[in-house]
Amino acid sequence: MRHLLLAATAAVIAMPVAVSAQENVTNRIIDEGTNHSQVMPTVQHLTDVIGPRMTNSPAMRVAEKWTADKFSQWGLKNVHKEAFPFGRGWTIERSSVRMTTPRVVQLTAIPIAWTPATQGTLTAPVIVAPIEKERDFAKYRGQLRGKIVLITEPGTGDEPTTPDFKRLSGEDLSKLDQFQQPSYDPAANDRRLKRLDYAKKLDAFLTAEGAVAYATKSYRDGKLVTGEGSLFGVGETGALPGIQIAAEDYRRLARLAKTGAAPTLEIVSDVRFNDSDTNGYNIIAEIPGSDPKAGYVMAGAHLDSWVAADGAADNAAGSAMIMEAARILAATGVRPKRAIRFALWAGEEQGLLGSLAYVQKHLATRGAPNDPVASGGNAYYTWSNRWPVNPQPGYRDLAAYFNIDNGSGKLRGLYAENNPAVVPIFREWLAPFSAMGASTVVMRQTGGTDHVFMQQVGVPGFQFIQDPLDYFPRIHHTSVDTFDHLKAEDMRQGSIVLASVLLSAANADKPLPRKPVPTQPVVTDPYAYSQDDD
Amino acid sequence: MRHLLLAATAAVIAMPVAVSAQENVTNRIIDEGTNHSQVMPTVQHLTDVIGPRMTNSPAMRVAEKWTADKFSQWGLKNVHKEAFPFGRGWTIERSSVRMTTPRVVQLTAIPIAWTPATQGTLTAPVIVAPIEKERDFAKYRGQLRGKIVLITEPGTGDEPTTPDFKRLSGEDLSKLDQFQQPSYDPAANDRRLKRLDYAKKLDAFLTAEGAVAYATKSYRDGKLVTGEGSLFGVGETGALPGIQIAAEDYRRLARLAKTGAAPTLEIVSDVRFNDSDTNGYNIIAEIPGSDPKAGYVMAGAHLDSWVAADGAADNAAGSAMIMEAARILAATGVRPKRAIRFALWAGEEQGLLGSLAYVQKHLATRGAPNDPVASGGNAYYTWSNRWPVNPQPGYRDLAAYFNIDNGSGKLRGLYAENNPAVVPIFREWLAPFSAMGASTVVMRQTGGTDHVFMQQVGVPGFQFIQDPLDYFPRIHHTSVDTFDHLKAEDMRQGSIVLASVLLSAANADKPLPRKPVPTQPVVTDPYAYSQDDD
């Protein structure tokens, strides 16, 4: 109750007129977002009809056009796309992996993203050669010719003792209210870059040794596959076809190879590259503001996905909520003080590359003038560790950014991202949504998605707390990330809360309190250097 | 503690000499079952090397020979197979299902057992026509020509809020200690027979309407498939290829068909029938008894499986524990009073047909002399409702039967199957295994596997309580029923406990107390007739 009372009091004192208008508009938003909701048809089109949207794939091109058209049809303004250099388009046309000796089994497997096709049917024996680092190469030199190389340690079956599907309890929520001190390890980026480089070195090693293909084990049990791959850049494509095999099927191959003759696999990986346009594109749309000097607020979600299913929870759900919030606000005819900008990012799965491009273009650059350019996969790893941060002319125009990328679960509130000054403001904005379960504000900082590079340059970028549902245990990146596992009531609730928060932010008297422009931290933890994960 | 004290007291009073001998032999059994265990190599061979063992398939023939050979190598006596009429052999050579319009998706699907092949690639549009009963046929007459008919209601995604993997707590175990009054519904068998007949009528209807194939939805989410089918009899094979599609893929097809043009599927179902021998075979082996008049005790598990994976938890696990108990007892050189017989059943998945054949041959027949013969699929449904029960000469020879068919989980004790007289005896036998977690005896009656038809004629057939692990939530009959999800420590424990219980039963002064020979029950529940599930 305390938070609600505080919030109500603050609202009455701080901006009674705005709140009164807001009360009306809140009910208009709720009506539009429930009785006239379009969020499920939107997400159904993105997932069932368009399907997986790997950045620069033909389906992503369809999605870019379809979403931009929708924004225009709904009355959004300044609808446009913003290009950034990305890499190759890639799709799966057909794939089949069978074990043919010592017996016939149709396996569950998926081509690894951006690996080349098999050119028909490839048949060869496997060899189990767990290779995790460059230093493992020597162990297998001279043994790989003509083989399909199983490069993952087989391991054993899992024992899932927690439920796959979960909603956050009050206790769960309160655990999230933690200030976390930042940590800084200047060597981490170098280590990560080595890993990135490792994918190329691995392909080169296997190719030089005469291997004919390689296979990894899915990191999830239960026959789920993901098929993530990293060599998406032009000129980066490896020479060997790669497949990811379901854990159960992979381990069977490894056990058979250990107890008898090496099994034979028959692989068909009919995949296609498309290099007609190597730029990725962010889709941008706006509701104009009434005060051109007041800047803008923004919400975004990544439209791109992996390819093992339809990228539903990750992240057609977030994209559709962003689109629906835009539609709702456009339908209500609001004219906020600040403009409200909507972004559908590309290249998120390869390193937040679409939102990074936006940051570099509109908000801030990083590094000294003579630093090498950060681009493609390496941008993600190097960018955080470039100094100084150089604010660009638009740096202060973006008053607040809100990101959605944690599945289709109900919004439960906001992460304050270690910025205590925003907590009372967020509580006020969320107060009307207490009965929808969305009024919690917690201090915790979050990572892994498109607000991160904004936070890292001092722009107030936030994420919503969401009910996790079954996102991380089984949906995230997997072959079951389909429309089936989205929750319509949650998606409608999320669109409503997002629309209202954006409007509150756009009409607030002042822009949100910001953190200082970051400067290079002093390393305080001597143990940061002791980690050996290269 | 009460049970342990009781058991110890009973043991000392009832048969002090036998118990003293038993103590030595228990430690010999434990040594053989831990330090010299063969249960995991055995189950690995059955699953990884031999693979799925559908009754009468070529792999099941290999398994029959391999298990019989093992019994002989281990010194078991009277190793032989017992034939019963079954039906056709069937295997999957290759299968692929793709959606080709409105976009290309490689689906997760499996041919339905005993459906015919597609004869190359079959391409056709789908129609969603949920057909559950004969009376649904009329709705779709005239609409199915040239179509792949999706006959299951699509439904929506699941929300798994309980853990997949579980071990039984003390509280769980005590809940199982319930006497359940038997219920009797003479119309149930007729209704079930109609369902069996329905599979043939459905195929005939779809064929007459010009459909080209049919598809069902897997009853589990998460891309698990099972592929069960029922038309295994000679002369019963349907005309149409049938596939079971993963729930997520099936629902996508249904949604697309609802919101746009019907999607097109491309099906390759390269399956093979084998009619070289239409008999199924149970594998039998023995440790001879010292007293030819004392009869025998028996343990059994079904060796057959479904075909979506390797039939590991269902039921290579049980088969391997039976084999290992036989090996352990043979290795210890025991010469019990009663013979100990081991059975690996076939045809369990099609209606406990192997154990039923054993009952009919060795224990009891049912029905009046002029009743029609129960055979194949109908035997399962009609047999329980045939009167009178006619004990055969061997009826009283079988002193006790123990079945294992609940996955690879540790044995936690025994179900007394509504027979209070055996409870103190079982507690005594299990007392040495309290520290292995296996000393619980509960009253509950269990069903669904190969002790049932023995129980139904009054022969004391029992099942062990087992830790469920992830058997029912995700393993049972599915594409992840592989070696990976078996637990080696549990399998070793189970083999030891089983071997010891069998030896106790074989050496017991008296055969186990039996229930009366069943006579036709009086129907006491008028509501038994109100159920409409035809």
From TrEMBL, chains A, B:
<keyword id="KW-0333">Golgi apparatus</keyword>
<keyword id="KW-0458">Lysosome</keyword>
<dbReference type="Pfam" id="PF04389">
    <property type="entry name" value="Peptidase_M28"/>
</dbReference>
<comment type="subunit">
    <text>Homodimer. The monomeric form is inactive while the homodimer is active.</text>
</comment>
<keyword id="KW-0256">Endoplasmic reticulum</keyword>
<keyword id="KW-0862">Zinc</keyword>
<keyword id="KW-0378">Hydrolase</keyword>
<keyword id="KW-0645">Protease</keyword>
<keyword id="KW-0964">Secreted</keyword>
<dbReference type="InterPro" id="IPR007484">
    <property type="entry name" value="Peptidase_M28"/>
</dbReference>
<feature type="signal peptide">
    <location>
        <begin position="1"/>
        <end position="21"/>
    </location>
</feature>
<protein>
    <recommendedName>
        <fullName>Carboxypeptidase Q</fullName>
    </recommendedName>
</protein>
<feature type="domain" description="Peptidase M28">
    <location>
        <begin position="282"/>
        <end position="493"/>
    </location>
</feature>
<keyword id="KW-0121">Carboxypeptidase</keyword>
<keyword id="KW-0325">Glycoprotein</keyword>
<keyword id="KW-0482">Metalloprotease</keyword>
<dbReference type="InterPro" id="IPR039866">
    <property type="entry name" value="CPQ"/>
</dbReference>
<keyword id="KW-0732">Signal</keyword>
<feature type="region of interest" description="Disordered">
    <location>
        <begin position="509"/>
        <end position="534"/>
    </location>
</feature>
<keyword id="KW-0479">Metal-binding</keyword>
<keyword id="KW-0865">Zymogen</keyword>
